[in-house]
Design goal:
- It is a single chain.
- It contains 17 helices and 17 strands.
- The protein is of the alpha/beta class.
- Helix 15 crosses helix 16.
- The protein binds magnesium ion (MG).
- Magnesium ion binds next to loops.
């Protein structure tokens, strides 16, 4: 691409379109893996040649979006809120929010392209020009010193905010660190992923692993011993020894431990000044979240698995410090803006969870610049060399010196996707990108939820 790319892209937007005559004609997906996890990129096609981009959340099935196709064909995509209210009954918490959210984002992209306006402007304009990124780092290294060195490398790349894992799986293999009912920890070490089971026995084992991971924290009977807590404290101590104290460091993936174990860990790591402690217990237990936050000075955070603003409301009253919606679960762009504004009324900051492609990143970035109490946006792809190349038309690198800059281009600001690249990163069992989805054209049921 040449330096005139941006201008060309602006010219490619159909400025002769009549937004009132715009209609949805097709919805297709590209199911990819490795950017950094699995996700399904979404295209909504129209009768005027413009295409809207969305994305189904990491780890979710594209079915969540495709089942909405018959409810959307023939509609004007600029009627974002009306269409969202029609389909939102088909979304749910966690990955089940992925389809509705993907569609909502693509509708915003289309509306922006049809009217020639960036999404942030349609949300009310900017509070900031650049979006602060927090760089997430999985705790693959056995020692805090090694993880600290990895985090220091992130800092050298310009990141100004970090997150790492600290919890059960780092100490589960160490004798005397965790009290656990016999056999339970094995289930946490097995990931019940797509396409791995073929025989009935393989399916049974996969389902068994899934069931173990579905045991909610209060019912797991897992406890850190004092030795386990000592080891976790030593880990974050070593990390801080390397990275110092002048950069925020959030903590995630504590494991399926109880409220009481969460309190013990939180109090022990207060002196290392975490930016927040995330998802210690399932978000549904708002009363337990109140107890957790009241027991520690560490800011308590949750929210990446909550669908719709109404799901956040009990937590906003619980006294937690940071909410952490994922646009690809929460219901998309407008719902996340509303969630952020509601949190602000309670004095709660909004960080944004994001572990997918530049489509999800830009959707989140538009909300982030347009929401006052925004704190930092997740970036999980610092080790994915091809991540930047997925999207065509964005400034490169997309994350520069720890920030994303949102441009004035219409919609999300993405001209197109790199199909050659996507074709080389298909999920197992997927045979191509943007394949026909005709089988979803006529799916029908009487969807009304009341009589
Ligand atoms: Mg998390």
């Amino acid at each position: 691409m040449t330096s005139t790319t941006a201008d060309d892209a602006l010219n490619r937007v159909n400025t002769n379109s009549k937004p009132s005559d715009l209609r949805i004609t097709d919805i297709r997906v590209a199911e990819i893996v490795g950017a950094p996890f699995t996700s399904a990129l979404l295209k909504i096609y129209t009768n005027q040649g413009i295409v809207g981009l969305g994305e189904v959340r990491d780890g979710a099935s594209a079915t969540y979006a495709l089942m909405l196709k018959s409810r959307l064909l023939g509609e004007n995509p600029c009627d974002i809120d009306r269409l969202f209210r029609r389909i939102k009954q088909f979304g749910g918490h966690g990955r089940q929010g992925g389809g509705v959210s993907a569609v909502e984002i693509a509708l915003w992209d289309l509306a922006g392209k049809a009217y020639g306006v960036p999404i942030y402007q349609m949300l009310g304009g900017k509070f900031r020009d650049k979006v602060r990124i927090y760089c997430d780092t999985d705790a693959e290294k056995p020692s805090g010193t090694e993880t600290g060195r990895r985090l220091k490398e992130r800092m050298d790349l310009g990141f100004t905010f970090l997150k790492m894992d600290l919890g059960l799986m780092q100490v589960a293999g160490i004798p005397g660190a965790v009290v656990a009912p016999a056999g339970t920890l094995e289930g946490y070490r097995t990931h019940a992923g797509r396409g791995q089971a073929r025989t009935l026995e393989e399916r049974r084992l996969r389902n068994a692993a899934y069931d173990v991971q579905n045991v909610r924290h209060p019912f797991s009977a897992l406890h850190f011993t004092d030795k386990g807590i000592d080891l976790l404290e030593q880990y974050i101590h070593e990390v801080r020894e390397v990275i110092g104290y002048e950069i925020p460091l959030a903590i995630d993936h504590v494991g399926h431990i109880s409220l009481q174990n969460g309190i013990r860990l939180a109090k022990r790591i207060e002196k290392y000044v975490p930016a927040w402690l995330e998802d210690v217990i399932p978000w549904q237990y708002a009363d337990q979240y109140r107890q957790l936050q009241e027991a520690t000075t560490v800011p308590i955070c949750t929210g990446e698995d909550i669908y719709l603003k109404e799901g956040f409301e009990p937590l906003l009253k619980s006294g937690i410090s940071v909410i952490h919606p994922d646009l690809l679960t929460s219901g998309g762009i407008l719902e996340t803006k509303k969630i952020g504004d509601a949190a602000q009324e309670h004095g709660i900051a909004m960080a944004i969870h994001m572990a997918e492609s530049p489509i999800a990143a830009m959707a989140a970035a538009h909300v982030a610049v347009a929401t006052e109490n925004f704190m930092a946006l997740e970036y999980h792809s610092a080790d994915v060399p091809w991540w930047d190349d997925i999207a065509i038309g964005l400034p490169k690198p997309i994350v520069k010196d720890g920030f994303i800059t949102v441009t004035d281009k219409p919609g999300l600001g993405i001209d197109d996707l790199n199909d050659d690249l996507l074709s080389r990163h298909l999920q197992p069992g997927v045979t191509g990108i943007w394949q026909p989805t005709d089988r979803w054209d006529d799916d029908w049921s009487w969807d009304r939820t009341w009589s």
